[in-house]
Every structure is written in C-alpha cells, then in structure tokens.
Amino acid sequence: MAHPSTAPAPLAPVPGTSLHRQLFMVLRDEISRGVYAATGALPKEEALGERFGVSRITVRRALADLAAQGLVERRHGLGTFVRADAPPMRSSPSLSVIDGLRSTAIETDVEVLNVEQAVPPPDVASVLQLPAGELAVHALRLRSIDGMPVMLTEAWVPAALGKRVTAAQLRKQALYEILMSQGVAFGRVVQEFSAQVADPQRAGWLQTEVGSPLLKMVRLMHDLQSRPVQHLTVLLSPERSRILMDIPGASVNTLSAGQIVHDVPRRTGGTAPRRR
Fold first, then answer.
1. Rg of the Cα trace of the chain?
2. In a 3-state reduction of DSSP, which class is residue 28?
3. 211: region left, alpha or beta (phi > 0 left; psi from -120 to 50 alpha)
4. Residues forming beta bridges with residue 261, ordered by sequence position
5. Neighbouring residues of 276: CB distance < 8 A, sequence distance ≥ 6
6. pLDDT at position 88, please?
C-alpha cells in the first residue's frame, strides 16, 4: 500500500482560526523539530506562499508572529532565520507530580477567578465519590508567565477537605500545598488527555482564538488510602504549552504508560468505549 504524501496540503479557512495563525503553528512546529537546523534559514516568502497556497501578506503575518515570540529574526536582504537564542521548544520531563505542581506554582503568576462551594457536575461528583447534591469547593484559576496566560485550571475538592481553600489563600499557596498543610498525603494519580474547543469565555482568558483547539488534562488525585481528594481540569493553548511524560522502562507494559480509549459511536446511536 502506498504511503500518503507527507507534503503539507494548502491551508484552508477554519472557523475561529485565521490562515496566518495556521501557518504560524505549522512553521513553529517545524522549527521545534529542527527542520531548519542545517542553515537556520526559513524558505523565502514566495516559496512559503506557493507551498501553502496563501498570499504573501498571510506569510508575512505568520512570520511576524514567530518573530514576536522570539523564534525567528528577519535579516534585511537575506530572509528569515531561526534565532540562535530562540527559547527551547523541546525539553525532557524530570519531575514527579508533586514536584511538577511545585514548579508550576513557582514559575507562574496566579489569578484567582472564582472560589465557591457548589454542586459539582455529575461526572465529577461520581469520581470524587460524592453523594448526589453534595457540595464541593470549586476553584477556577488562571496562571500566566510574564503576563501571558499559559493555563486555566478548574479544581473540585470535597467540602470536608476544602475548608481552608479561599481566594485569599490561593493567592498565597497552591491548592496542593493547602491540602498537604491539612495532612493530605497524595498517592495514586489518574490522568486523562484530550482536546477541547475554546469557547468565547475560555478563549478570552487564554488569549487565543474562539474555536481554536486546547489541550485538556484531567487529573484525579487520591490520598494514600486511595480516596479521591481532588479533581483537576487543566486547559492549555498548544501554541504555548506541551505535556511531557517520562515513563520508566519497567512501566512501559503497564497502565502507568497510559491507555488509549476510543469512544466510538455505535450504529444504534450509543457510544462504545474501546481500549488499546
């Protein structure tokens, strides 16, 4: 069987995502993969326009966005080049879950958007093992680096554990620190990765286009007695963030390495989860 061509197809209008933003994302990904490492030079504007079927104005706007992020520089009369001091786009994970939480808290500035006691959605109540209608603490926070939003977090904590979780306290401490100060020792963690379309409100918070894809991580944290203590949903713009995992060789053939679940609609109209 012949393999499909790996050459990129011409860009096409996508609701919520402009052509220059699409081109920006393609070129940024190629830069991160070292496609232009040999010479550092990107193709000429005309060549990029022909390759992706877009106008020179679209190409220039995409290159301007890359330059604004410090990834490329325009050299008069020579073209566009990957900056030698461009921020690294690929790194290796080296932190545990708790160390990762600590690093996030240190490296980002937090804005507490909302803290309240509310009835969680049925799916959240179910995994937190809360009776129907029982209240939980709901915390919505936005984390930024140098004024640029990088992650939106939505946490649910059983009310019995969330007594100290207030907006004022969350401005001083990360949520995991508040829980640990109450004697919670974290144990098993279950994570799910998927994607979500940015609605107007979340697009506004994350400063991205309405309808653009967001990385979504759902994390269910347990204590040492395997009781669920926190349900956390993290939304990230793939333009600024990635999720890294380091799986030990001994865990490759275990659930620790992850499991792919396919939610395939049945022909009768239902949904049949399938695992691989």
1. 22
2. helix
3. left
4. 275
5. 259, 260, 261, 262
6. 56
User: Which SS3 state, helix, strand or coil, does residue 34 take?
Assistant: coil
Mind listing the pLDDT tens digit for each residue in 51-87? Answer: 999 999 999 999 999 998 889 999 988 999 999 876 6
Is it true that domain 19-82 has CATH number 3.30.420.10? no
Secondary structure class of 123 (helix, strand, coil): helix
Looking at residue 63, its amino acid is L
d(CA 173, CA 103): 13
Q: Where are the domains of the chain?
A: 19-82, 97-242
Of 182, 207, 171, 211, nearest to 195 (Cα)?
Answer: 211
Q: In Å, what is the CA distance from 227 to each residue of 131, 185, 189, 230, 267?
A: 14, 11, 11, 9, 37
CATH 3.40.1410.10 assigned to 97-242: yes
CB of 229 within 8 A of CB of 188? Answer: no
CA angle 41, 65, 58 (to 5 degrees): 85
Amino acid residing at 162: G
Q: What is the length of the chain?
A: 276
Q: How far apart are CA 235 and CA 134, in angstroms?
A: 26
SS3 content of the chain, % helix, strand, coil (to 5): 30, 30, 40
Confidence of residue 19 (pLDDT cuts 50, 70, 90): confident
d(CA 27, CA 181): 45
**Start-to-end CA span in the chain (Å):** 24
